[in-house]
């Protein structure tokens, strides 16, 4: 799948649905380009942009784009309820970005508090919305959201997603570049989590099929795992992966909207409540539908390299999940 669909007219019948999308953290480095990309999506009829400050300006700017979605900007906690009310899909890129030398785990204490607060508001004002979590560390913020929703008695595991699409986008790009393939035709499943060694691209299942040496597989895997660090270092303290993350977030959001609209055959890799492994949350292929998760798909046949990678990630992913659960349960 490519992003070309966002720049074409919607499929026949798609526009009969009125879908409100809320972006929480819309004035940030990811939020602004994500807001523009969602404004371009013909499946969006109402675009609600929220942040603690500066959102009215972002909303005014984006609203001038001549597409279907009506745009409104909201700033400050006192306007959060209005921003969320009636939302079908809530996308959360809110939080601080990574800086040189900072791991995703270093972001935890700041971003975890932000996510907990925003999810508390979601549980009050749009409890039936599909939630796309972008705020890092996703391995922990998704479990935080789940616990907040459980406490509010609004938890629906089918409607909570960790957005790992950027890992898929990177794996596709790097694989296509290495083998000289047309990147728009390439797919590479990525499973596990969304940080370091918990990111496991399954190049044995990549399409189109191309021969890779053991060295190439190892190099492509490590580059996919370290893609965020590559961008942070290249920006030399001036930011993290914002543009590519906005693109990936918009891709996944489009798939969620297509699923909500009843379009069949929508499959994406995403971090969800799962029984694919012994871990309570795991990223794998998921079929999307009118209620969010329609089916969590299995891992398929893994190579020996991938089997080792799967086992190697489990302890770290388990600890990250527990860290999120423990944080959420704090008073």
Point out poorly predicted stretches.
none
Largest sheet: 6 strands, parallel
Note the beta-strand portion: 15-25%
* Helix-strand sequence: EHEHEHEHEHEHEEHHHEEEH
Helix/sheet category: alpha/beta
Widest beta sheet: strand line-up: 3-2-1-4-5-6
* Shape category: globular
If you consult CATH, what is the topology of the largest domain?
Rossmann fold
Annotation, overall tally of beta strands: 11
The CATH architecture designation of the largest domain is 3-Layer(aba) Sandwich
Helical run tally: 10
CATH superfamily of the largest domain: NAD(P)-binding Rossmann-like Domain
Radius of gyration in whole Å, from Cα?
A: 19 Å
Distance between the termini: 43 Å
The tally of structural domains comes to 2
EC number: 1.1.1.37
Pfam families: Ldh_1_C, Ldh_1_N
Family: Belongs to the LDH/MDH superfamily. MDH type 1 family.
Protein name: Malate dehydrogenase
């Amino acid at each position: 799948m490519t992003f070309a669909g966002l720049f074409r007219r919607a499929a026949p019948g798609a526009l009969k649905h009125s879908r409100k999308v809320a972006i929480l953290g819309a004035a940030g480095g990811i939020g602004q380009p994500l807001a523009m990309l969602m404004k371009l999506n013909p499946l969006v009829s109402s675009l609600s942009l929220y942040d603690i400050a500066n959102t009215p300006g972002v909303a005014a700017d984006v609203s001038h784009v001549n597409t279907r979605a009506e745009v409104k900007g909201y700033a400050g906690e006192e306007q959060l309820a209005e921003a969320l009310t009636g939302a079908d899909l809530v996308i959360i890129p809110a939080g601080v970005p990574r800086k040189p030398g900072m791991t995703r785990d270093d972001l935890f204490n700041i971003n975890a508090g932000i996510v907990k607060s925003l999810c508390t508001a979601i549980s009050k004002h749009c409890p039936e919305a599909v939630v796309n979590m972008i705020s890092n560390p996703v391995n922990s913020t998704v479990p935080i959201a789940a616990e907040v929703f459980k406490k509010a008695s609004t938890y629906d595991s089918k409607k909570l997603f960790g957005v790992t699409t950027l890992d898929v986008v990177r794996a596709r790009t790097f694989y296509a570049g290495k083998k000289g393939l047309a990147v728009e035709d390439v797919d590479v499943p990525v499973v596990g989590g969304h940080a370091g060694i918990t990111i496991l691209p399954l190049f044995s299942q990549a399409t189109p099929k191309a021969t890779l040496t053991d060295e190439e597989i190892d190099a492509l895997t490590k580059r996919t795992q370290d893609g965020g660090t590559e961008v942070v270092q290249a920006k030399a303290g001036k930011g993290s992966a914002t543009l590519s993350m906005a693109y990936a977030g918009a891709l996944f959001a489009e798939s969620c909207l297509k699923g909500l609209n009843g379009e069949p055959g929508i499959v994406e890799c995403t971090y969800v409540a799962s029984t694919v492994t012994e871990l309570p949350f795991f990223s794998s292929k998921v079929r999307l539908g009118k209620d969010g998760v329609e089916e969590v798909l299995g891992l398929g046949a893994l190579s020996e390299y991938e089997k080792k990678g799967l086992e190697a990630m489990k302890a770290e992913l388990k600890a990250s999940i527990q860290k999120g659960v423990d944080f959420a349960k704090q008073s």
